[in-house]
Amino acid sequence: MLNQRLQQKLLQKLSPQQILLMKLLQIPSIALEQRIKQEIEENPALEEINDMEDLAGPEMEFDESPETDENEVEKEEEAEVKNVEDEFDLEDYIPDDDDTPSYKLSTSNYSPDDERKEIPFVSGSTFHELLFSQLGLRNLDERQEKIAVYIIGNLDDSGYLNRDVTAMIDDLMFAMNIQTTKDELLQLLFIIQELDPPGVGARNLQECLLLQLRRKEEPVPSTELAIKILDRHFNEFTKKHYEKIIKKAKITEQELKSAIDEILKLNPKPGNSQGETTKTNHYILPDFFIYNDNGGLEFQLNSKNTPELRLNRTYVDMLETYASSKNKSQHKDAISFVKQKIDSARWFIDAIRQRQNTLQITMQAIMDYQREYFMTGDETKLRPMILKDIAEIVNLDISTISRVANSKYVQTPFGTFLLKSFFSESMQTESGEEVSTREIKKILSDCIEAEEKGKPLTDEQLTKILKEKGYNIARRTVAKYREQLNIPVARLRKEL
After folding, report:
1. Which pLDDT does position 430 carry in this prediction?
2. Measuring CA to CA, how many Å separate 254 from each of 47, 228, 261, 264?
3. In this structure, are 326 and 437 located in the same domain?
4. What is the residue range of 237's domain?
């Protein structure tokens, strides 16, 4: 049975301004410029402040319809005008003469002392283009060249061919109507493997390293031994079972060390030697700069490459014209459109201003909290700090602090770090003192760096060392921290 009833509910909903602010908070400075440019393209009421003086545009003329003496039309127009005035007051969108501060209509994203710099990007030929240019120097007919180009197109960014030869034969038949055989395909692959950089076109790591060793112009005994080890004892080599290699190859430890030195000079990813220059995301643009000014810490928000914004005066003038017009009903749609764009522009400018303020107070709180570290650069001086600690200091929500920390970088006198890396859990020592888990990781890293490479420390030994220093943690915790530091197990750290 259907019925109707009235019901009252209390709901919490985010306003469009809050959603916009959250989205702007979580993007780094390097992406903020693109976001601002996108907003300027989508909203004509928003514009960038240039150094050049604004040129006065042509005055806009609005055609007014001739008045009629029909009473019905006049009543309809009066009703429409009243509806427009009831929806919003145009006076709220028209600034008074010299009464509206300029900061309410614009946002300045950098101080006059800041030097405006462009983000450096590297350009160059791609890895595949380099191979195509070398392929043109080979004596191949048109059919063979098409197959070779197809093979190069299947190489990944590291220079490896990870596709099955049989599958490539089928693809050539169905996609390019070229019938070939496995022998012909392998023959062309061997030609590609002769191209630069050495090792390109390999189907696995073993083949890649062997291709590079066999390309050496003047092979020495250690090179020949390295080829023998990779060809016959590759599995033992990857697992660093050096005793087995010495026994099976009937060589001395010094000879094995010389061969391994030759192998370590090789490039396991030959494609990256050229491909790395074509990527555009190598550079980290810091969001904050921290300086040590004669014992006092200062920080600066990086607002370079971020344009200054303001409302487009043309749109404000349009509203003034509409407000003074007698026939507002004829421009009802235009008034609504201009109002919407001006509202959107004001929200965006205000969101940018709030973003700057949030970043500044958050960074100030983090800098004060970790002052001892930023003064010395000693990671053992880092205090345990979680998102809740900073949120309580700045009176903001934890989710807001998380958005600020997750994607922002800070440049310090000791390097550039992700802001999130300064947050860590706490752990108690045997004396009851709370220390940061990052401090423990630093000590763990120092122990591994100072270990004897011929006899690396196991996780059990590292656990014992940390306990002697007062850090009572389990072996599995040591293994977890070691993996977070991207440090392999003791057997894989062993060196001759």
Report:
1. 66
2. 70, 16, 11, 15
3. no
4. 127-275
